[in-house]
Design a protein that fits this description.
Length: 442
């Protein structure tokens, strides 16, 4: 199907500083293409996103999304695994993939002149993976080694256990990579079924940023998908975004201990929070900057600088379409766990009771503003921002508007959110040399 230049130019979503322009097109099949052309850039970063993550796996398919991330690099009818790797190596480019709870992205960074090659190779991988049985069994062992490596990291274990504790039996509470048991048990047929179900035109979002032309990117994507044999129905609409209706979270307040023989205990305390498109997400960013977002944050100053109880301590939050969580982390001597836990809770409660000063608020908004702008200095960050905007937000917010929303957060809003978090039932996760029945006074 021949498309006009006007159609391929798409909708202009925003003009960015430096002359960058963000455009969006919907191609036949419901394929969405978003680009940010950046004048003067000699490189480009490309991402092929599928709106499927670990939360979408059916029973018997747990771990399949991450399994596919590995297997799509293992060959197609047109290319072997070596061909895929060599295509990027011989132009000095790089390619990789990332699996999350709600999406999977296959991406590459190359010189602008090599963007056609990158589109062709990644489109081939996404549309035409063979999932060779021998390669699958070999990669099964690789993934088991990866899970074992993560399992040897007590910080990773603490975060995984914390999320599972807070989100309970909701699919978001499952580990992204599956478990050793599910990876050993998942059959090729189950992985193949998962692939066929979700890797479809209406699920696909292609984003690119750097030295590029939007219409040319659209043409190259269409050519690559036609070559793969994908049926691109001109009347097919993109798959609707996930519902933002809040999930029923059945987490487990209280203390969960993971016994490990380690020199340093890993401690997390937190609670459920709100979903990704909640208006309070900007307030949460400011709260985290004040509470645990840097060396001048309250947690860092109180726990590390004043008392020397931990090397690393911070606060964090994560949000999905219909749920989210907030937490505070510290790594400390096992003998100091109870004291550190009490101090983390106290700092949150102080924030809830006394609020923040105007000086703290200015510092936090300045820290966030600088971080946002500096993070967008490379094409990879901008490519990822386009993907998140399309799959999660449903709208693109330019840098100026984002900064305005950050600076619009008030001290009263930070205090109100802190009060909500401080009043929520707390889940505590501790990884260290303790008995499972240890409560640490909570």
């Amino acid at each position: 199907m021949e498309l006009s230049d006007e159609h391929l130019q798409g909708e202009v979503l925003a003009g960015q500083p430096g002359g960058a322009i963000v455009r969006r097109s919907i191609l036949p099949g419901g394929v969405r293409v978003l680009t940010e052309s950046m004048p003067g850039q000699r490189s480009a970063t490309l991402g092929f996103w599928v709106g499927v993550g670990s939360r979408d796996e059916a029973e018997g398919q747990h771990g399949s999304t991450h399994f596919l991330e590995h297997l799509l690099f293992k060959g197609t009818p047109r290319r072997s695994a070596l061909d895929i790797a060599a295509a990027f190596d011989e132009v000095g480019g790089e390619s990789n993939a990332a699996t999350a709870k709600e999406s999977t992205c296959y991406y590459a960074r190359v010189l602008d002149v090599d963007l056609p090659m990158a589109i062709d190779v990644i489109a081939d991988m996404v549309t035409s993976a063979v999932l060779d049985p021998e390669e699958l069994e070999s990669e099964r062992e690789v993934i088991l080694e990866e899970l074992a490596m993560d399992g040897d990291d007590p910080t990773d274990v603490a975060h995984e256990k914390f999320v599972a504790t807070v989100l309970g039996d909701h699919p978001l509470g499952r580990p992204i990579g599956g478990t050793a048991e599910t990876i050993r048990g998942v059959a090729r047929e189950s992985v193949w079924e998962h692939y066929q179900r979700f890797y479809r035109p209406e699920e696909l979002v292609v984003t690119a940023a750097g030295g590029l032309d939007h219409a040319q990117v659209c043409r190259m994507v269409l050519t690559a998908l036609h070559r793969a044999g994908w049926a691109l129905d001109p009347h097919q609409a993109p798959r609707p975004r996930r519902s933002g209706e809040l999930a029923q979270i059945t987490g487990t307040p209280g203390v969960q201990v993971v016994p490990r023989t380690v020199e340093q205990a890993n401690v997390i305390v937190g609670c459920p929070a709100f979903a990704a498109n909640d208006e309070r997400r900007f307030t949460m960013s400011v709260l985290n900057a004040i509470l645990g977002g840097g060396m001048s944050s309250r947690l860092f100053q109180e726990i590390r600088e004043k008392r020397g109880l931990a090397y690393s301590t911070y606060s964090f939050s994560s949000a999905f379409a219909d749920a989210g969580y907030f937490g505070m982390y510290a790594g400390c001597s096992p003998a100091k766990v109870q004291q550190v836990l009490e101090l983390m809770v106290q700092e949150l409660e102080k924030l809830a009771a006394d609020g923040v000063s105007e000086q703290e608020l200015r510092k936090a908004t300045g820290q966030l503003s600088g971080g946002i702008v500096l993070a967008l200095e490379d094409t990879g960050s901008r490519m990822s921002r386009l993907g998140r905007a399309e799959l999660v937000a449903g709208e693109f917010m330019d840098i100026d508007e984002t900064l305005e929303r950050i600076h619009a957060v008030t001290a009263a809003q930070v205090r109100d959110l802190a009060r909500e978090l401080a009043a929520a039932p707390r889940s505590v996760t501790v990884v260290g040399p303790f008995e499972e029945t240890e409560t640490f006074g909570f």
